[in-house]
Amino acid sequence: MAWSSASHPDRLLLTRQFPIGPDRLPEFAPIMQAANRIWNSCVWHSREIREKENRWPNEGELKAKFKFFASWKELHSQSAQAVVEEYFEAVSGYRKHRENGHEEMRPPDLSQRSIFGRSPGKSRALTSYRTAMG
């Protein structure tokens, strides 16, 4: 549950999670592809920044940059933001392991599969999208 936006502060929103069978998965292909494009854009932009400026971009930079991309608009805004947040969780994990001496760790890479199925956070993004769509 979550409280609604400032425009309706007296509303409490209820979201539900439920499993999706493989027979229903094709219905969500456009959503999953849009999420993959956002994830892959995060990877590409992060690589560019690391090569040019020797630093990782922050979450706000990527959200601001991708906010006007077509893929961002194909998803509910909270779902698109959740994809960027999940990318930064992966980056944080990578950086923490490298700092602890695990040199075999590699940074998050391009995704060819559905990122909604990889962690609980991403299923939240799908839930938010489905709730918003009715």
Describe it.
The chain is an all-alpha fold. 56% of the residues lie in helices and 3% in strands. The chain has five helices and two strands, in the order ββααααα. Strands 1-2 form a two-stranded antiparallel ribbon. A hairpin with an 8-residue loop joins strand 1 and strand 2. The longest helix has 25 residues. The radius of gyration is 16 Å and the shape is globular. The C terminus is likely disordered.
Helicity level: 55-70%
Order of helices and strands: EEHHHHH
The biggest beta sheet is recorded as: 2 strands, antiparallel
From the structure provided, what is the oligomeric state, counting identical versus distinct chains? single chain
Give the tally of β-strands: 2
What is the CA-based Rg, rounded? 16 Å
What is the strand and helix layout of this fold?
Blueprint: E1 2-3, E2 12-13, H1 29-53, H2 59-66, H3 70-74, H4 77-99, H5 120-133
Antiparallel strand pairs: 1-2
Give structural attributes.
134 residues; single chain; 5 helices; mainly alpha; globular
Short description:
The protein is mainly α and 134 residues long. Helices cover 56% and strands 3% of the residues.
